[in-house]
Amino acid sequence: MSDHDWQAPGGAPAGGSVPDATGTPYGAAPTPPQAPGAAASAGPYAGMVPPPMPPGAWTPPPKPGLLPLRPLGFGTLLWAPFRVLRRNPAATFGSGLVVQLVSVLATLAVFVPFALFVFSRVENVSSADADAILSGAVGGFLLLMLVPVAISLVASAFLQGVMVVEVASGTLGERLGFGALWRRAAKRIWPLLGWTAIFTGAILLVIAAFVALIVVAAVTSTTALVVAIVVALFAGLGFAALGVWIGTKVSLVPSVIVLERAGIGAAVRRSWQLTNGYFWRTFGTLLLVAVILNIAAQVVVQPVSLIGTIVAAIVDPTASGAYLTITIVTTVVTVILSLLIGAITAVVQAALVAVIYIDLRMRKEGLDLELVRHVELRDAGQPVGDPYGVPESPGAVGAAGPSGS
C-alpha cells in the first residue's frame, strides 16, 4: 500500500480534516452564532434562536396597578400606602386635606364665638361673679368639645372608606377621580360611622372610668387619692396593652365593611379571623408606619416653630410690635404645615389598613388568583363581577398561616 493511500481513522484522507460534531473541520475556526434570520450560508449557527423558558420557570407576578398580585413582602407592605398617595395625589391628598380642614373649621366655628362671649361677659361683671362665669365657661367648653369630636369622627370614618376604595381599585389598575371615590365610599358610610362611634365610645368609657375613680378618691381622702392614682397607673398600662391587642385584631373592620359589604358584627368577626396568625406582622407594620409619620411631622413642624421663636427674640428683644408680628406669622405657617402633614398622615394610615387587608386575603384565601382572573377577563372584554366579594367558605379563614395570636 502506497503512502498516499493511507487514511486517518474515521475515513478522512490523509492531509484532510475530519469534521467535528458541529460540522466544522478540525483545525478551522468555528463559525460564531448569528442573529436569527441570517442567511443559511453564514454557517451552521445561522437562524438559531434562544431556547424557550423551561416549564415551571419563575416569572414575575402581574402588577396591573398599585400592588403586585401576590402576597406582599414586608418592604412592599410598608411603602405601599405611600405609593397610594403618589399614584393618585389629587383624589387621595385632596380627600385628606378636606377632612383636616373640616375638623379645624368646625373647631374654630364652635370655640371662637363661645370664647368671645365668655371674655365679653367677664369684662363686664364684678370679681364676685367672674368666678361663677369662668366655672360655667369651663363646663361649656367641655360640652362644646363634643361637636368637633363628633365631626372629626364622621370625617375620619369617611376618609377610611375613601382610602379602602382607592387601594382596592388601584390594585386592579383603575384610577378613580375625587368624586368617584367619594360616591363609592358614601354607600357604606353608615356602617363606618357606627363602627367608629362604637370604637371611640369604648375608649372614652374606659378613660371616664379612670377619671371618675381618681375624682372620687380625691374627694374621700389624700390616702385614697394616692392609692387610686397608683391603681389607675397599673390598671391603665394593662388596659393599654389590651386595647392595642384588640385594636390590632379589629383594625381591618373598615376594609371588610366597604369591600365585603358586611355589617358591623360580621366585620368584627371577619377582621378577627383574618388577623389570626398575623398579629405581630399587622401590629408591627401599623406601629412602624405611625412612628415614621410622627418623626417626619416633628422634623418638618418643630424647626419652623423654633426658628420663628428665635428670630422674634433676636429682631425684637423687647417683645413689642415686631415680636408679635413674627409670632403670628410663625403660628400661621405652623398651622398650615400641620394641616398638610395631618392630611398626609391620615391618608397613609387609612391606606395602610386596606393594603394589609388585601395582603392577608391573598395569603390566606388566594385573593391574588381571583384578582389575576378578574384582570384577564376584564382586559379581554368579558363581563366580570366583584373580586373582593365574600369568599365561598369564610369559615375556612384562619385555617392557614403561621401560628400566633
UniProtKB/TrEMBL annotation:
Keywords: Membrane, Transmembrane, Transmembrane helix
Ranges of biased composition (kind: Low complexity): 389-405
Annotated spans, Disordered: 1-43, 383-405
Keyword Transmembrane: yes
Transmembrane segment boundaries: 97-120, 132-159, 192-219, 225-245, 278-297, 304-326, 332-358
Keyword Transmembrane on entry: yes
Stated name of the protein: Membrane-anchored glycerophosphoryl diester phosphodiesterase (GDPDase)
Source species: Agromyces ramosus
